[in-house]
Amino acid sequence: MYALWHWRLDTPKFQNPCFCGKMKASFLLFVVCLGALAVCNAGDLRKQFYKKSCPLAEDIVRNITQQRVSANSGLPAKLLRMHFHDCFVRGCDASVLLNSTANNTAEKDATPNLSLAGFDVIDEIKAQLEQTCPGVVSCADIVALSTRDAVSFQFNRSMWEVLTGRRDGNVSVAWEALAKIPAPTSNFTTLKRNFANKGLNVHDLVVLSGAHTIGVAHCNDFSNRLYNFTGKGDADPSLNSTYSAFLRTKCQSLSDTTTTVEMDPQSSLSFDSNYYVILKQNQGLFQSDAALLTNKGAAKTVDELTNMTDFFTEFSQSMKRMGAIGVLTGSSGEIRKKCSVVSSS
After folding, report:
1. Is 85 a known active-site residue?
2. Residue 208 main-chain phi, psi, to 5 deg
């Protein structure tokens, strides 16, 4: 297993990843500091943050989420993707929920986010919470909690712990989403760098890629692998030929931007470890999926995660780490009254 902190730093202050101020000038240590700062505020999150200020908060989130998932089985994948796209830009601050204004194009309208969905569910939860305890529960916490509750619905138990206490950001810029959200065409080196920039390691990369076990993708996100992989009208040789032929029956041209395909065939509504099983059969839909097999350590983790119990355990831990990326806590940020609008504007 790869670890971000892969050398020994034995003194107490170096065991604290939020300590960076007194490190000597070393480029390697400087990079590590940047990664540590990305999750430094995570210690301010805690269990039952709203126990006194809004005791029913988590129940309200869970109840509404479960009602909506029971009516829309595709919702867990949508909320999981929203949460990921939010955290990878400015941290888990609900900046992806903000609407564009006359003077600013927000993350929501950046190309990687145009197919996001589930905003209406977050808005419904927020509206109920504002009636119950106005100005208390952040949109960022709603996204984190609702995502967990949506994915957990099929199991009738919480699949991972969500610490709370996040506050909402007041900045949302489209170009940052373009620059920071990992693309489906990314190679392993790019993916590793994207995750390291957020304080996550290669193990987290492989584990969180398992989210592709649910949901669908648009043809234009992977059709270059079918029709024009190297710019010569060819297919990606790393893609299973039978699967490639099947995909061409669904996505019949490079210009198809509307057709969707299951990311995990025959299992796209079930959160399980089947993603890793088909990945080993060279049926990962995206280049970014196939890239996991190009690194020895990542490929070994893929093998391990075909075990369902191991996948659930590791996904729980990686989601907890992802949910702490760059969080705003204390007096930072704000608590929005409406998730799509900055309250202080």
Report:
1. yes
2. -70, -25
